[in-house]
Amino acid sequence: MGLDIWFLLAIGFSFSGYAAYLLGLRRQTIRPNRASWLIWATATALEALTYAAVNPGAPQGWVFALSAAACILVTIGIWHRSAWSPPSPTDTFCIGTCLTALVLWLVFREAFWAHMLVVAAVPVSFWPTWASIWADRSRERSPAWGLWTFGDLATLLIAVRGAELGVAELGYILVELLCHASVWFLIGLATINPLRSLGARRGGLFIFDRYRPSTNLFRVGENHLGKAVFAATGFAEGDVLLEFTGQRLRADQVPSRMRGRGDRFVQVTPDHYMGPSGRLDDLVNHNCAPNAGLRFGDEGVFLVAIRAIAPGEEISWDYSTTLRESNWHMLCQCKAPSCRRVIGNFDSLDAERREWFRARNLVAPYLQRDEVTEKRAVG
Known about the structure:
By secondary structure, the chain is of the alpha+beta class. It folds into 2 domains: 2-199; 210-378, Beta Complex (Beta-clip-like), CATH 2.170.270. The protein is 46% helix and 14% strand. The chain is built from 10 helices and 14 strands. It has helices spanning 2-27, 34-54, 60-81, 89-108, 111-135, 144-160, 167-187, 194-198, 351-359, 371-378, and strands at 200-202, 205-207, 218-223, 226-231, 240-244, 248-250, 266-269, 272-274, 285-286, 292-297, 300-305, 316-317, 330-331, 342-343. Strand 3 and strand 4 (226-231) form a beta hairpin. Helix 1 runs antiparallel to helix 6 (144-160). The longest helix has 26 residues, at 2-27. The radius of gyration is 25 Å and the shape is elongated. The chain starts with a helix and ends with a helix.
């Protein structure tokens, strides 16, 4: 009976993890490493086959088989939503290791060694994700990593309770347990909390818990308009300050009458916006003479310093650098000497200012128009 309980727990934790991860993908609250998932989809499918060959009839083989199917489903979801880049040398090495294992199994029928090669490839496959999290742990906010760790523990207990115990029996389970647990520790054990990881619904949006910045980088204070973000230390020109991480929304999903504090939407394409994140980036205000600007890249949307910023100075950016909406405007009270009084879309800026932002890659990509076309338009 105990074995049945652990088997059900292993299945339950594993599939709860995949369900949470798929939900995070759908809500765009996580940014998984595409290379790792492509490798995992291949490796888990191969592992399920080789494990079944080495241990026919073992109940944990079903855990591997169902996990492989779920892993492939997640990878398809990532593929559908993402643009794929060529694999790195590390990715290529891991894929090559898995293909070698497949050849060993299919050609030479050496299922044991194929199984062990996949075990060795698992830590390599985690490397792109570890590197991504080390750079920014908010990329993996999902509670799935904690659930997968618990599932691995249950699967390990199933194996320990088995009649025979060997390297092939335990190798993959132990390595998976250590790898899943390492990611969970890196992103923070508190991410098992669904509110922190998946976001709380507020209308049509999912708002995260408050981001707690390091006190030696920023502080949240008040200015003449309300809440604002201030530098608690100095920044040099070009420094990355924050990442904007709001939920991506279609234009028809954005409330039509959002003003003031409620208007925390950033236009990222002609048809899509980034909504509020519930984090520090929501509190960065507009200024007609900003000290920072938004830079769009393959890894995300980042606020970067466009000049040296002194401690105590408010962080700000120019809202017009992402907008093309013709009917949007907002009265400006930034009090800068060059204040435009009314904030409008990108075309409301003069040609010289537009070119200044474009030359520094501080506008939304869809506003980066050909320089020749721009000059003709001005002429």
